[in-house]
Write a structure and sequence with these properties.
This protein is an alpha/beta fold. The protein has a single domain, classed as Purple Acid Phosphatase, chain A, domain 2, CATH 3.60.21.10. Helix content is about 25%, strand content about 25%. It is built from 5 helices and 13 strands. The strands form 3 sheets. It has a 6-stranded mixed β-sheet with strand order 6-5-4-1-12-13. Strands 7-8-9-11-10 form a 5-stranded mixed β-sheet, with helices on one face. Helix 2 crosses helix 4. The protein is globular, with a radius of gyration of 18 Å. The relative contact order is 0.17.
């Protein structure tokens, strides 16, 4: 059934839920393939409470009760990767079943205007095959070739053209956190100008698990690059890399909104408290 086209003034962006990881999004007992169950940790229950507040309170308030579309920027499940031992289960069917259960209410909330981006192959399968399976089961809006999970999405919020992808460069230094984000915006303008394409006014990425925004004035308001945080706690990998090892996880998402005068981003970010003194 073809969906009725409508002007989109609000796009809610989330990503990096890493469902299936013992540090990923999980709000209830996780059914395992052998008939057993995994009970989420206290920190996971806290994150899930934020997930419910995000969709139940914050999004309706920021969008002022107006309709919204949703973009998940990838890494919905954790997969089986890098020899890690942190997955609740390495059975991909179990991870996909749990992801569908957690994301289906989101699809309902946006009236089916749900878009899914393919994330990191190590997490979501070669060529994003597992993300495609999930997006298809959720009824995500397909691209022109029928793919329900895509590598890139071009979409407008109000009059502003937005570009959504998963990956972006990272840094090990807080002093240079803006560098890759601003470069992504500049490169979008350079590539668009080179081929006489319309440049995106908004560039949106995930992957970093940290919230960030940089923006510069342009002819129709501001051009901006937005990175959304994730919904995953600190993994053993994050415990050892520069930058991440000293910071606590950032949890949340963003709304791109067309207001009365311009397009802007609103961010919702929670931070877990650092460990107590011994």
């Amino acid at each position: 059934m073809k969906r009725k086209a409508r002007r989109c003034n609000n796009i809610v962006v989330v990503g990096d839920t890493h469902i299936g990881c013992a540090m990923g999004l999980c709000g209830h007992d996780f059914a395992l393939d052998d008939g057993g169950v995994y009970a989420p940790s206290s920190c996971q229950r806290t994150v899930y409470a934020w997930w419910q507040e995000f969709w139940g309170t914050w999004v309706p308030r920021v969008t002022k009760g107006e309709p919204f579309d949703v973009v998940h920027v990838g890494d919905a499940i954790d997969g089986c990767h890098h020899g890690t031992k942190t997955q609740v289960t390495q059975n991909i069917d179990s991870q996909l079943r749990e992801a569908e259960q957690l994301l289906r209410p989101v699809v309902a909330a946006c009236d089916g205007r749900y878009y899914h981006i393919r994330g990191t192959e190590a997490h979501v399968g070669q060529s994003g095959e597992w993300e495609e399976r999930l997006a298809k089961s959720l009824g995500a809006v397909p691209d022109e070739d029928g793919r329900c999970a895509r590598w890139v999405l071009w979409k407008r919020v109000g009059p502003a053209l937005c570009n959504f992808m998963h990956h972006i460069g990272t840094t090990g230094s807080s002093a240079y956190e803006s560098t890759a984000v601003y470069k992504e915006l500049v490169e979008a303008y350079v590539e668009s100008g080179r081929w006489h394409d319309e440049a995106p006014q908004v560039v949106v990425r995930g992957h970093r698990h940290r919230s960030f925004e940089t923006r510069v004035p342009c002819g129709n308001g501001y051009a901006m690059a937005v990175v959304v945080p994730g919904w995953q706690l600190k993994t053993p990998f994050a415990q050892r890399i520069p930058g991440a090892r000293q910071s606590e996880p950032q949890i949340g998402g963003a709304v791109l909104r067309c207001g009365d005068e311009e397009v802007f981003a609103r961010h919702k970010v929670w931070r877990l408290s650092r460990p107590k003194e011994a």
